[in-house]
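Team,

Forwarding the record for the chain on the shared tracking sheet. I've put the sequence and predicted structure together so nobody has to dig through attachments.
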Amino acid sequence: MCGIVGYLGEERAAPVLLDGLEKLEYRGYDSAGICVVNGGKFFVVRKKGRVKELAGARALEGNPGIGHTRWATHGAPSERNAHPHVFGKISLVHNGIIENAACLRAQCEARGEVFSSDTDSEVAAHLIGRFYGEKGDLLGAVSAAAELLAGSYAFAVLAEDKEEIVCARMRSPLIVACGPDGVFAASDVPAVAKAGRVAYVLEDGDFARLTRGKIELFDGALRPVVREAVALEEEEVSPGKGEFRHFMRKEISEVPAAVLNSLPDLSKPEFSEVCKVLCQTKYLHIVACGTAYHSGLCMKHAAEKFARVPTEVFVASEYRYADPIVPPGTLTIAVSQSGETADTLAAAALAKSRGSVLIAVTNVAHSSLTRVADFVLPTHAGREIAVAATKSFNAQLAVLYALAVQLAKTAKCCAPPLAGLPVLARETLAASAGVASWTPYFQGARSVFFLGRGADHCAALEGSLKLKEISYLPSEGYAAGELKHGTLALVDGRTPVVAVACDEALADKTMNAVHEVYARGAAVFLVTPFSALAQAKEVTASVLIPRCEPAFSPILSVIPLQLLAYHVALALGKDPDKPRNLAKSVTVE
């Protein structure tokens, strides 16, 4: 989850590190810090809070340097637990979780070593420091320490008396890059993206040694290896907010473009191998987490309705520790915005090991998921900076619905066209402006329910997640028919209810739930394409969206729910771009 950077070059390291950390802050913002070497000594600045708290460190002299922006796992968010960690002549930044840290820490303390933080990461600094004292070789010391570690890590390590950075990767993303202005290490491309630079994606077990103007790559046995070079481009740098106050609002405005750009034409020759796999598919498994899991639920409705292919959707963190049955003819689709979600990667690898073909749906090229998959169907949502997913969800639906339609064709079944969805998304965005006026009903809410049936239930789940993530209101997406089986006991005048009713065959049934919550004093807000429902006396306010095929409707109906979450967060004084305790890329269990 955390973001790490490293730099060795002709410039002062501090400004380069801080610029890189700002572009990685979506990975965590509980604390931040940098360490630079100047005159053979470490100079470290660490602060609780966001990267902007390090502004005073920009004037630091020195090179090389490493930096870190933290999402807390072991140890509270505090300056004490901020990275970089220093032990002896070693300074280290870490992304991941060292699972045997308690045992290793006890061994260090038994030798008389004193710890200055509560983190698992400091254990690695102690181990590397001890081996460095014995070997005098930083690469060898990092390798020796890595042999003792269980869990996941991406390290960037400095030695006080050497002009080099050593990196190591195990189940946490890490790239290294070089250009005419120096050598770099980072958790993700945006931190180092610039025309003229070349990047290398480290694989699990890899090490890298960065010296002035040079990158050396090694495998787990410290044998030199060659990895694919990726040319970086200037446009990969994080975009600005434009005319909007927040990235989230800007990214919601980009939903129609994300849908348009992400709809693949699977009839094209470059997808011929994918289509062959679809012809042989008897079962679909989808593994994903969070918002991506909800997109998988939407896919299930479409695939089963149009292609009649039995589809199961698994929370990846549960799938990876289960003993899943993967019948012959199973196609597994792994969905992850970042392509680095640890649980999804592990679930995808498990499915492959059991004989399934694997398709990756991700927004990030050259991610770990793209390297493990047999086929990649990219979403083209563009960079998404806000932690809460918006346009990337709609882009995932565009790809998944296209797969469902192609599955239907291979099964000689009928499915409606998708080409009109981008225009309908634009119309939905315009129709949803009024949700800002709903916020007073949510400001004093005790909890919120989102209701729907069928595919509308999937949209309700995602709408509820968005509200929880950025407003911190307790919220639940619920199957409308299940409301009366216990949950209705929670509904009263301080419980707003948002209902989604886009399927004409189920709309009257959903409205039964609306009547039930209205009778208990709830204010009801409706998202529907049916004007008669929108005018019902039980409905406090509504958004009238365009009609489309009901199985595809979540790609539209979620838009007003995204906007509702945004406006409620603002009304409650929350930062919609950086919700507390969350990070964009979930690279730890």
